[in-house]
Design brief:
The chain is α/β, with parallel strands linked by helices and about 400 residues long. The protein is built from 14 helices and 15 strands.
Amino acid sequence: MKIADIRTHVLLDPGYDREATSSAQDTIVVEVESDDGLVGIGETDLNAWVARACIEAPGTHTMDRGLRESLLGRDPSDPAGLWEELYVGTAMTGRRGAGVHALGALDIALWDLLGKAEGVPCWRLWGEAAHETLTPYASLQPEVSSFDAYVESMVGWGSRAREIGFRAVKLEATFSGPYVHKGLAGPDERVVEVVQSVRAAVGTELTILVDVQYAFGRDVERALRMAEALAEHDVFFLETPLWPDDLERYAELCARSPVRIAAGEWLSTRHEFVDLVERGGVQVAQPDIGRVGGFTEARRVCDLAARRERLVVPHAWKTGISVAAAAQLATVTPHMPFFEFLPAELCESRLRKALVQDELVFSEGGLGLPEKPGLGVELDRGVLAEFAEVARRAAPVTS
């Protein structure tokens, strides 16, 4: 088997909003096709136009190879070996950041292709199942423009999540910092008000996770006050309270916080997670499978977390491709209590709702283990073409 073609598709939801803090509005889908007609798919959480450039750009010397040109004609049966070659061969351009994020989309597609070739789900290529069922959490981020409407919507979505069987929800409650959503800036007390309102509505049995998206910058004391306030409402973790590079302040916060601190969604490669876990002291590692470098590198992060007795709860704020990838990883990872899930009825993104058909059936708070070959998802070609055309028309605006 040889790699015969690699195709990239930049997609944009026609309802995208520049004031929204949501990368689920666009994506890049990568297809890796073998010479016998099998196709593996992948995606990554990165500016889709940048990702396409990282994949399609040619190289001119031995340490600056092009990703696509390096894979064409190669045997895809050893994704981990190809990962090492691509990582080294693109080191002057990649090594961290966008280059590794783009490599992650290709790595996911290669594992999907291999699973299809072997006739097994990706997770069976890595080992035995660590769970009988998987436990997703519902990520909730209302698309409204007033705080009162935000609280009302969050309470409604949280209550609906409990009704349909979710055992955990994550509240995206960002009212300061670089990721203020829909212009809803306000005092820190708003975060507590959202959590308090949802907790009152859903009761004590539902697990609540909270994401403040770097709201407190480098201010440990402010982050600690938030952690102490949230502890009163039985919060499972506080996600990304500080800027990701400030490892010393993370270490101080983690040592003092009464709730777990989670971070890692932006990181690329296991090397950055070594710093985050060992120097930063973070208790919950959150690799995004595409951004970190694909399944090959995400599995190494899971191994690192296991050795350090830390939990893994991956980031998957994208389409059904990323959700399916998270389910594959969760199946073989015993120290992954939850993974991120954007249920169609509790999110706004049409990309999430319509791009793929998957095998994941949610029942009684859990998902059955994936059993179809590869990722277990199929692209809706009509939706792909529609969103690719929206992206094509928007390209002059976004360049």
